[in-house]
Amino acid sequence: MGIQTLSAVILLSFVGFISGIAIFLTSKSLPKEDESLEEAAGIKEFLPGADCGACGYPGCFAYALAVAKDKQVFVKTPCPTLAQDKEGMKKLETYLGLKVEAKIGKKAVVHCTGQSEPIADYHGIETCKAASQIASGFKECPYACLGLGDCVAVCPTGAISIDPERRVALVDWEACIGCGLCVDACPQGLPELVSANMPQYLGCNYQAARDIPGRKRCADGCIHCKICVKVSQNGEVTWNEKKDLPYFDPEKCLPAHAAIEKCPRQIIKKTATYKEPLAISTQQEQTAPRTG
To answer: From CA 218, how far away is CA 118, in angstroms rounded?
Structure first.
């Protein structure tokens, strides 16, 4: 072997040795692969894969990565409800070691009928959140729906719309999955999640205990007469002392037939679950003993 060839071999071996040392040292100084990436891949297997973004993250993997870094993200976001998959969510709960109360079996109602008249023309940013910052909104009732659609914007199923005449949010009972995003979006506190078995709800949120001088309830607003409570013999309607408004027990979900009939403002609204009471004559026919 010639001198030149031997020198070339030695030089290449030296370069290779130095390069190996450099690679080794570099690998030690570089940050290690984030262990949460592997964890996120495991979490994503339990997710619906819709990449809908309703959770606030650009996709299911981004959401899974956030959960891998902080498990409370899973508790605080609506993904368990949006998935509408009890078995899948149970498996994910087991995987994460958490217990989450998914709002499956819930529906949203809006405590306003839209009968409050505007007291001023609003020309600001077209969101309820912005409008509510100015004297609690531009409606005569300070607790009224402003109808600018913040709840519509966040609804993942398109279950909420704005009535073009009354400018009030309306909920499609069948399309609603009870995710609760509208509850968080409304600055007026009007949407509420109730049991899907709840027969009725109060179409008003006017709180007399927090009255605002110069403002008043609409023509349909609850007048706090408590007739609904007085005619409720089985406790289907009680009184919420904190809000100073009628209350329907979510554990009982009893139909308030008498309260609906006797309410002077007709502000107790029926849901799609409500069933009309049988006529007395029909009940008598069903219970009368058969002869012959």
So the answer is: 11
